[in-house]
Design a protein that fits this description.
The protein contains twelve helices and eight strands. It has 301 residues and is of the alpha/beta class. The radius of gyration is 21 Å and the shape is globular. The structure holds nicotinamide-adenine-dinucleotide and prephenic acid (PRE). Nicotinamide-adenine-dinucleotide is lined by residues 10-16, 36-38, 41, 58, 71-74, 76, 79-80, 97-99, 122, 125-126, 129-130, 230, 233, 237. Belongs to the prephenate/arogenate dehydrogenase family.
Length: 301
Amino acid sequence: MLPFSRVTVIGLGLIGSSIARAVRQHMPTVRLTLHDADPAVRERVRDLDLGDDVPDTAGASVIDADLVMLCVPVGAMGAVAAAIADDLPADAIVSDVGSAKTAVLAALREALPNATVIPGHPVAGTENSGPDAGFASLFTGRFCILTPPDGAPEAAVVRLRAFWEAFGSQVEIMDAKHHDLVLAVTSHVPHLIAYTIVGTASDLEEVTQSEVIKYSAGGFRDFTRIAASDPTMWRDVFLNNREAVLEILQRLTEDLTMLQRAIRWGDGDALFNLFTRTRAVRRSIVEQGQDDPAPDFGRQH
Ligand SMILES: NC(=O)c1ccc[n+]([C@@H]2O[C@H](COP(=O)([O-])OP(=O)(O)OC[C@H]3O[C@@H](n4cnc5c(N)ncnc54)[C@H](O)[C@@H]3O)[C@@H](O)[C@H]2O)c1
Ligand SMILES: O=C(O)C(=O)C[C@]1(C(=O)O)C=C[C@@H](O)C=C1
């Protein structure tokens, strides 16, 4: 049996449009209602025929929903929740896909104090944005982390888990604060490093823009992919996961200083030992199949 029969997705960019496509593919009988604040996006979503209905207001899109999935930038979650508050059915489950969880949970609970709110985060994405960037298999073989607050109804968590598992995601349950620390290490600070190195390279007066493009065949090219990620989304992630990001940045700064000293004083052992350890990390990720864009978690889809 399907966990939900009337799903509303608000925010039809990369993630929202991927969810819409995955719902169509894996749950074709679900009634799918889609809304985006941007009229051009709504028009495109209608052209792409991603849902059954594309109302012009957020309120109208949730009137008979049993699941409302918020797929807007983290900084817009509170405003969207406030916009649907009057029209949300009492038994609907509200979830989201935001990359930071503590701030989103607080914003959703403030705007929707009586609703069942179960935040989530599919750990899957690309550097692209908008309704054309989405694809149905984005979540297949990827983790989706749910961060239910204390006292969240277990039945609601079970239904949301079933929703993501239908897309082939592996669902994990985590405390929101712990999520934010883990993701600061594995996603947020790595993006900041990519933004920094690409920014530094393009600022260097001795190196021209054309040389940056010409010689970016190797590692730098991988950084440029990450540094092409959506500016609004990432501005909001850093402003809404301040504490954890600053804590990890402090650690990173200390480690960089240690490396600076090793290079200055010719301490080859320190460099060699670190690089040996990091090579082992990469190899264990590859062995676990996590470098594969769609590892098989042993489930039939
Ligand atoms: N891009 C990724 O790799 C990735 C991965 C996992 C989670 N996320 C999270 O998913 C969310 C969406 O990211 P995305 O990459 O799909 O962004 P996106 O820029 O592709 O799409 C966001 C959409 O939200 C719409 N929007 C903005 N404010 C709105 C509002 N107030 N009401 C209705 N619609 C509004 C925009 O018009 C846009 O169409 C973010 O919270 C992000 O942190 C992103
Ligand atoms: O592969 C990418 O382009 C991503 O950045 C995806 C990525 C990540 O850091 O892993 C980015 C943000 C998310 O919240 C989840 C996934």
